[in-house]
Design goal:
about 20% helix; three-stranded antiparallel beta sheet; 2 helices; alpha+beta
Amino acid sequence: MLSRRRGDRRGFSLAEIIVATTVLSVLGLAFTQLMLTQGRFSDQQNAQRGARAVARQSMNVLLSELRLVQDSGFVDSAATDGSAIRVLVPYRFGLSCDDASGGSKTVVNFLPVDSLMNAQARYYGYAWRATSGRYNKVFLSDAGGLAPASSTSSSQCNASGTGSTEGVVAPTIAGRSGSILDVRPMGPTTAGVPVFLFQRVTYTFKASTAFAGKRGLYRVATGGTEEELVAPFDTTARFKYWKQGATASTVAPPALDSIRGVDVVLAGLSTYVPSGKSSPARSTLVTSIFFKNVRSY
């Protein structure tokens, strides 16, 4: 027998090399598949979060205005397919002062307001609360295009003023003072009647300019420029309407004077198609918004 010399090492056989290579290939393939799966999952989660963000961002915008709408006669129009709603949105509140102007105007002491919000608003008219609890609307066109202006009869809002029988004093809040304005034509003739200025705002779901083939949510105040607020949405995004006494909302609007709130169906889409999918991720948020500025029943 031939003896091995001390220090000789035995090499790997061909069979051992094949087995080791096969095992490493299987492990490598499994690891690669795991990484791909994890990457796809992460991408799909990011797309889903993006779709939810689209829905949530638009909801924040809608909530801030729609909740302020007065519940009687302040839905100006509503599309039969739920694609659009036009509302009269209050943006500044105050109380009337006594009138001694011969019937041409009403003097109103308005509460302090954020200057940016006031500057961005597009005045469309004012409304004052009647004893029935409903608000009487007075439009800008009724005043021949004359918007509210600093009052020339501000003493009417002071109990010591000529012709005034009751002072209406607006507080200073966070360093901001109220304003005494003349609104035209004349509305309430007694002191202490709630008054608000409003703008006419239209919200519409229609073809997006930012994302071809998708829908966007647009907002425009009469007299201003239309802007696309948020996108993309799919074709199920819409408004649904709540009627007083109803147990469910409907796409077809009831009589405008009976609308007490809306369901906003926000079917948000991701801005891209995630890995392993054939279409963008979708997240639908449905929120009921009921008008808070309600009349007495």
